[in-house]
Sequence to fold (229 residues):
Amino acid sequence: MRKTQVGTRAPASGRPTVRVAIGVVLALGGTSACSDDQGAGTRPEAFSAPQVCDGALSSAGAEALERIGGTGRFTEIQIADDPDYRWSLKQAVKDLQADYTDVHKCLLYKASDKSGLPLVTFRFSSDSQHPDPAEDEDTDRLLFPIGLYAAADENFGASLYFACPVEGSEGRTPYVKAEMYSAKNQVDPASTAEDRMTVLNDVSRALAQEAGCASEAKLPARLPAPTSS
Fold:
């Protein structure tokens, strides 16, 4: 079985129609990212945790995000030529079969931070296979019994695979891969892997509901305890 990477570095987009990639160079898995000029000189609108990522977070997820950031106010990526742009579950579902470098991403920033580094980035893509948690021997990962495979590692990354058949130009793919990345110097050190997986599970659950595959995705409303430590 291939070795699964949790929080793998995301390549930069090369397609200009994918606006979320404009001016952003992410350094994932606990490193850094450069400024994306969000707001183009204007102060971006701040949102509470329940408002971000198209309102995908439950109360538990919102509290977990606040612990991750050490704050209750966030901004989303701002696009200079589209001030009304916001990430949406509907568009993320449409883009599931897009090229991996072009998938629809939700980038969140701490409203008080001026570094231009995203606090967390969510990415969703279709996949034809998934890892087997029974074969994962990486002791640095915390595994959770949700979906088909769910793991959070020590480098501020988390991955979750769940069943969700998607029809697209490339045919039918049976699974969705959800990823969450964090910049190490943005994350509150008191936050936990459980916090990260709680947030990723919430956003993934909302996306599964939007895609019509919630019944087979097996993403619970409440995150269960991890199966490894």
Remarks:
- The helical segments are 52-55, 59-69, 89-94, 193-211, 214-217.
- Residues 1-5, 7-41 have pLDDT under 50 and may be disordered.
- The longest strand covers residues 157-168.
